[in-house]
Amino acid sequence: MTTGGPVARPLWHGRTLAVLGIVLVAFSLRSAVASLSPVVDHIAREFPMPAAVVGLIGTAPPVCFALFGLLTPLMERRLGLERVTVIALTAVTVGLVARGVAVNATTLLIATALVFAGVGMTNILMPPLVKKYFPDRLGLMMTLYTTVMAFSTFLPPLVAVPVADAAGWRLSLSMWAVFALAGTIPWIVMLVRTRASSVPEPVEGPDRLEGSEQPERLSFESAAALSTGPIIVAPSSSRVFARLARIPLAWVLAAVFGTSASMAYTAFAWLPTILIDQTGVTPQAAGLLLSLFAFTGLPASLVVPVLIVRFRATSVLYVIGAVGAAGGLLGLLFAPDPALAWLWVLLYGLAGLLFPLALVLISIRAREPETAVALSGFVQSAGYVIAAIFPLLLGLVHTATDGWQIPLIVLVALLVASIPAGIYAGRHITVEAAWERRHGRRW
């Protein structure tokens, strides 16, 4: 069976602004988050930074991501993908500038919350934007998107402190607003062009088949048959969002994303302390090892989307990431030798496979872009609730037990328990088809 329709178009053909917009948004997502913690000591020299505020700043990202994961699909329903993207990037820009002019810990916290609100919105919007503008280039664009995000994760820690030393922490924090502001320009231009011209009719694709066979081929092999230009997307429906809660596949994707987010935020919150306490490495070495953990996400971002979209390697990649990360944690638990610390961190860094995997699944497990918006909101909201709770829970367990043995065992248990979800997520079916099979009627 073939899908028919036109062949896949060159990436830049008629979509230059969309490519630039997605790249700039991807860079802003992580640079906005990763640019604060390296200069907290510089900020504390100017005004007090209570531990409670620092803790709130640390937990703010997943909390905001979960909250705005619920709100963003409702906003998109009324305003559309591009308008909400501009609103989100504007919030990030204003928040980053506000962080740079903060006068005390409270204003810094408020500005940071605004930044993370915008980031939480764009987290939800990016997978459906990729699906809308690049249905024929899902693997390539998700690779580009996740690679830029990985690059912008370890770049800010490298430059934030030197800039703060040379020009002050205010410039170090606010300079990242340039990228968020630049990211609004392509989307604004596309909105202006759309209003200035008549709205084109959607290009007719092949007749849709019942079940999941055709959507899978469109998602994995030749989605070019859907359109020769950007798909005209109807606003997402609250009914779609409500239906997702009744589909096991949606909860499985949320578990996959939640495991990925929990591993990342736990590492950034506790890994240096775990390394120092367990292996006896110096704080400087622990910082470098944390950078090694973050760096492992870069090659993962390059290969995972392509392997999933072209070869459907979801289950295999998930097992490799989960088992490898569990092996690294067990190494820290049973062989805490400082000479082996880099090996255990590198293995733990295989958890970086799970993040691009989860993002790609959000795109290809939805048949329509408007469903992808709701699915993205559902999956990321539920996942970030887990990520907001888990690092705090580990800290409480560490305090209660005065050690890292039980917290490490808990992390391993989470990874092992998530493997069935990762395997289930590899099933070649969309949420719409899952609904139709389960309830016997059209989505």
From TrEMBL:
<feature type="transmembrane region" description="Helical">
    <location>
        <begin position="84"/>
        <end position="102"/>
    </location>
</feature>
<feature type="transmembrane region" description="Helical">
    <location>
        <begin position="404"/>
        <end position="425"/>
    </location>
</feature>
<feature type="transmembrane region" description="Helical">
    <location>
        <begin position="249"/>
        <end position="268"/>
    </location>
</feature>
<feature type="transmembrane region" description="Helical">
    <location>
        <begin position="138"/>
        <end position="161"/>
    </location>
</feature>
<feature type="transmembrane region" description="Helical">
    <location>
        <begin position="108"/>
        <end position="126"/>
    </location>
</feature>
<dbReference type="InterPro" id="IPR020846">
    <property type="entry name" value="MFS_dom"/>
</dbReference>
<feature type="transmembrane region" description="Helical">
    <location>
        <begin position="288"/>
        <end position="309"/>
    </location>
</feature>
<dbReference type="InterPro" id="IPR052524">
    <property type="entry name" value="MFS_Cyanate_Porter"/>
</dbReference>
<keyword id="KW-0472">Membrane</keyword>
<feature type="transmembrane region" description="Helical">
    <location>
        <begin position="316"/>
        <end position="335"/>
    </location>
</feature>
<dbReference type="InterPro" id="IPR011701">
    <property type="entry name" value="MFS"/>
</dbReference>
<feature type="transmembrane region" description="Helical">
    <location>
        <begin position="374"/>
        <end position="398"/>
    </location>
</feature>
<feature type="transmembrane region" description="Helical">
    <location>
        <begin position="50"/>
        <end position="72"/>
    </location>
</feature>
<keyword id="KW-0812">Transmembrane</keyword>
<feature type="domain" description="Major facilitator superfamily (MFS) profile">
    <location>
        <begin position="16"/>
        <end position="430"/>
    </location>
</feature>
<keyword id="KW-1133">Transmembrane helix</keyword>
<feature type="transmembrane region" description="Helical">
    <location>
        <begin position="341"/>
        <end position="362"/>
    </location>
</feature>
<protein>
    <submittedName>
        <fullName>MFS transporter</fullName>
    </submittedName>
</protein>
<dbReference type="Pfam" id="PF07690">
    <property type="entry name" value="MFS_1"/>
</dbReference>
<dbReference type="InterPro" id="IPR036259">
    <property type="entry name" value="MFS_trans_sf"/>
</dbReference>
<feature type="transmembrane region" description="Helical">
    <location>
        <begin position="173"/>
        <end position="192"/>
    </location>
</feature>
